């Protein structure tokens, strides 16, 4: 395939799909740099060493031991429940209040169990606890949006090895979400992602995994190698209002997608980004998860232009990922 440009309809950004560049030696960072906690300092997320702060929410197993838990972040990036107030302190000095909530979601008590290795029931619990916390955030009148993320591996921004995610509720609408909301509004025919699911299943070139509740694909406009989009098949704008089936289905599909990624690239670092509509928006939107492997680094061209160069066409990526799941 020759090089071509593709438009990402969610972000409005162009992507260069360039298969030729993948032939360069050492095109990928293949193994995630392992994080090691200092030997004298126990892992703060392992059972028995939990921080003294009580969890904001916890799911326990039949023996009364916790299986997944959400705790307040010890070093919150956003804090307080004031509304977002902008203050102009000069012609180029604009400030705003950084109100919000910053929490840590510990996936399981097991220090080495990544999302790929969670059982179907555990993955459903993790998604359920995420949904419940975001529902709580949505009840606070000064909060407008919650960003759920998982950073795995140092290259993806993780500082503690024990698999965990973060929930950040904020009093403002962040740019990425506002941009996606605008793109959904401009896509007048119907829902942008319902259309994506239908179109991708019809051509069946980039689908990695599909069942009744979820479709995982490497999108037509993938901007990094092996990027995936995890889409619940039932149309719902808000993650915190999604059905039990959709919630459990996405949790399980993420395990599948990450297993395929690991089988293809090895222990690569990655980010999971959960996108949902802003709490009180009634506009058309379809919640989803971006799975972004950190196999390449963003270089000057990407920074300068906002245009990404993807050296693995998503058709090839999907084929490789799918083969590992079929095996
Ligand atoms: Zn641990
Ligand atoms: Zn939809
Ligand atoms: Zn998104």
Please characterize this protein's 3D structure.
- The protein is of the alpha+beta class.
- The chain has a single domain (4-326), classed as HIT family, subunit A (2-Layer Sandwich).
- The protein is 26% helix and 24% strand.
- It has six helices and 15 strands.
- The strands form three sheets. Strands 3-4-7-9-8-13-14-12-11-10 form a ten-stranded antiparallel β-sheet, with helices on both faces.
- Helix 4 (244-265) crosses helix 6 (314-326).
- The radius of gyration is 20 Å and the shape is globular.
- The two termini are 27 Å apart.
- The mean pLDDT is 91.
- One zinc ion binds at residues 191, 193-194, 235, 286.
Strands, helices and their partners?
Layout: E1 4-7, E2 14-17, E3 57-60, E4 66-72, E5 86-90, E6 93-96, E7 100-106, H1 120-138, E8 145-152, E9 164-170, H2 175-186, H3 192-203, E10 207-210, E11 214-217, E12 228-232, H4 244-265, E13 270-275, E14 288-293, H5 300-305, E15 308-310, H6 314-326
Parallel strand pairs: 2-15
Antiparallel strand pairs: 1-2, 3-4, 4-7, 5-6, 7-9, 8-9, 8-13, 10-11, 11-12, 12-14, 13-14
Bound molecules: zinc ion (ZN) (3 copies).
The site of one zinc ion has 5 residues, from loops.
């Amino acid at each position: 395939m020759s090089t071509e440009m593709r438009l990402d309809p969610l972000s409005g950004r162009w992507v260069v799909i360039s298969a030729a560049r993948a032939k360069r030696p050492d095109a990928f960072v293949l193994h995630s740099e392992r994080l090691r906690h200092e030997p004298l300092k126990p892992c703060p997320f392992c059972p028995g060493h939990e921080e003294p702060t009580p969890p904001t929410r916890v799911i326990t197993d039949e023996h009364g031991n916790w299986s997944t838990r959400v705790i307040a972040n010890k070093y919150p990036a956003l804090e307080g429940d004031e509304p977002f107030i902008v203050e102009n302190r000069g012609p180029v000095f604009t400030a705003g209040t950084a109100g919000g909530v910053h929490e840590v979601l510990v996936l399981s008590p097991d220090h080495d169990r990544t999302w790929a290795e969670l059982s179907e029931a555990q993955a459903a619990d993790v998604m359920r606890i995420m949904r419940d916390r975001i529902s709580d955030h949505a009840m606070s009148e000064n909060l407008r949006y919650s960003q759920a993320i998982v950073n795995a591996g140092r290259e993806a921004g993780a500082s503690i090895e024990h698999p965990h995610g973060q929930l950040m509720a904020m009093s403002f609408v962040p740019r990425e979400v506002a941009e996606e909301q605008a793109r959904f509004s401009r896509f007048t025919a119907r829902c942008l992602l319902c259309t994506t699911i239908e179109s991708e299943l019809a051509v069946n070139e980039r689908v990695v995994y599909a069942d009744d509740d979820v479709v995982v694909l490497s999108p037509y406009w993938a901007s990094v190698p092996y990027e995936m989009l995890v889409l619940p098949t039932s149309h719902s704008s808000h993650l915190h209002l999604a059905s039990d089936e959709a919630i459990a289905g996405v949790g399980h599909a993420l395990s599948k997608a990450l297993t395929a990624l690991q089988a293809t690239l090895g222990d690569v670092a990655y980010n999971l980004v959960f996108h949902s509509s802003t709490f009180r928006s009634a506009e058309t939107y379809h919640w989803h998860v971006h799975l972004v492997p950190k196999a390449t680094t963003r270089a000057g061209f990407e920074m300068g232009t906002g245009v990404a160069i993807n050296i693995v066409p998503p058709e090839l990526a999907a084929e490789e990922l799918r083969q590992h799941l079929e095996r």
